[in-house]
Amino acid sequence: MLKIRGYLRSAVVLLAPAAAAQPRVSLSTGPQQKHRTFYEFRTYSIHPDQNTAFLKLTNEKIHLRTAHSELIGYWSIEYGGLNKVFHIWKYDSYSQRAGVRAALSQDSSWISEYVSKAIPMLTSQENEVNYLVPWSHLQDPPQEGGVYELVSFQMRPGGPAVWGNAFQAAVTSHDAPGYGKLVGAFNSECGMLNRVHALWWFESADQRAEVRHKAHTDARVVAAVRNCVVHLDSQENKLMFPCSFSPLK
């Protein structure tokens, strides 16, 4: 009996270091953000009878706003929502955005020449903070003009650790010759969580329709999409035309 007890004590001593060496389970839900730069998505809904006037005013006065921070793109939504505009603003940090907001509140020209006239034309405003996903960066379209598509995916809870690779594979399968041009892929930080966006460029709405039909018969694309949709709750899209003052055209 003493020999057996001594053996068990020795076994515990031998097993203890191995157990202690086991790695801890990571609590991370995905790649960590490596920088503070983020993109604010804004969607404004306009009174139907004020849509033309709002776009004209914005075209004339947007320079008062871009004097304070960088505008990435400004679009008028044509399909997937009427009488709406969508725009993306870039900020280096939350403190920079706070500073911009403070400066705008003191900019008399911005307030009197634009805000006071534009706000009555709107029915609602929405915003969302997004980061570029680690494997994406903003790209210019091959040429000016064309149509942009913003595809938004509401993924199931769990974060990029659960669905990130599948989402990347599905998106990049479409970012190939003969398909659309991926301008950027984004992951939401403030707003709806577990939401990702893909911003695409096409030569025209007709070319985009042709690409959709092509994708349905492309085994490579179909397989990647099937692996992704098991993590998907819902999705929506908008087809948009860039405004004349938009940096991305």
Automatic annotation (TrEMBL):
The keyword NADP does not apply. One of its GO terms (biological process) is mitophagy. One of its GO terms (cellular component) is mitochondrion. Residues 39-136, 148-247 form the NIPSNAP domain. Keywords: Signal. It holds the Pfam family NIPSNAP. Gene3D superfamilies: 3.30.70.100. Residues 1-21 form the signal peptide. Belongs to the NipSnap family. This is NIPSNAP domain-containing protein. It comes from Zoarces viviparus (Viviparous eelpout).
